[in-house]
Amino acid sequence: MTLASPRIRVPSTARPGETITIRTLLSHPMESGLRADPTGGRVPRRIIHRFTCSFDGEIVLVCDLEPGMAANPFFEFQVTVERSGTFRFVWEEDGGDTVEAQAAIDVTPAP
Amino acid sequence: MALRTPGRDMLRNVYCLWVSAKRPATPLRTSKILKCLGKQAGFTRRMVVLGMACLSLPASVVRAQNNQRFAAELELFLQGSPLESGGLVVEMPEAVESGYTVPISVKSARADVITSIRVLAQANPLVRIASLEIGRMARPASISFRIRLARSQEVTVLARTQTGRVFRDDRRVEVVVGGCGFDLPVAP
Hints:
The complex is a heterodimer of chains A (111) and B (188).
Chain A (H helix, E strand, L loop, with lengths): L6 E3 L3 E2 L3 E8 L9 E2 L5 E2 L4 E8 L2 E8 L8 E8 L3 E9 L4 E10 L4
Parallel strand pairs in A: 2-10
Antiparallel strand pairs in A: 1-3, 3-8, 4-5, 6-7, 6-9, 9-10
Chain B lengths: L5 H16 L8 H12 L3 H11 L3 H20 L4 E3 L2 E4 L3 E4 L3 E7 L5 E8 L6 E7 L7 E6 L5 E9 L4 E12 L11
Parallel strand pairs in B: 1-9, 3-9
Antiparallel strand pairs in B: 2-4, 4-7, 5-6, 5-8, 8-9
Helix pairs in contact in B: 1-2, 2-3
């Protein structure tokens, strides 16, 4: 099963020094590895174990997720931007699959 | 993907069973309850019985195991630093119907620069929920996400500042129906 494409919301423009809100959502069941399947066995663990947000290569936020994170991992966080650049978001799944998304932001001073 | 609300269905079902149990005309047997509950959640009767057997482990044993796991996690993050309170604002609902998705929001309350955050659920089978590293641009920290809770419990958030101070904040959350995905014990 391939990973779903993530949904991200990043403002396209901002003023230098402005604090913006970023929202990201990825559809994923986050199988905890503690769930029984209908035959009485164990559904193997399969979660997004790491989410990374970076800005032109600089780390903004890294989260190591455990099975206690809810399905469809969602993050909302605030970031202060000083210059234009590109946010890059990476989700890493158990087994090595990754999915990523990018969003550019144009930071210009008020006219 | 269609979102299900197992909690609400289960609650309604339990209520129906309770109502029917009060009618003398329809004697209610345990097997009937199990079958009905199982059908609702898509489990076989055997699994429901097994699940109930797991739940009936002496509560004190389970609590002791959880306390031990939580203490170990706490020590792992502290690395000997003393705990302080007040540097964090954690927002969570006081009561939730389903532990399947519980929103949590963490903000830093003071000017201290928080560099890492850890979220622990004291009574979950896996105590650690998330570890966050906060980059320069994401400070002061203000982060929201969603977690799973197996039952009513205290959620602990720990935050380490650039200068090595560790803040702690706890939130009590009442959970009506525990989060899906915690049926089985933690694999050895």
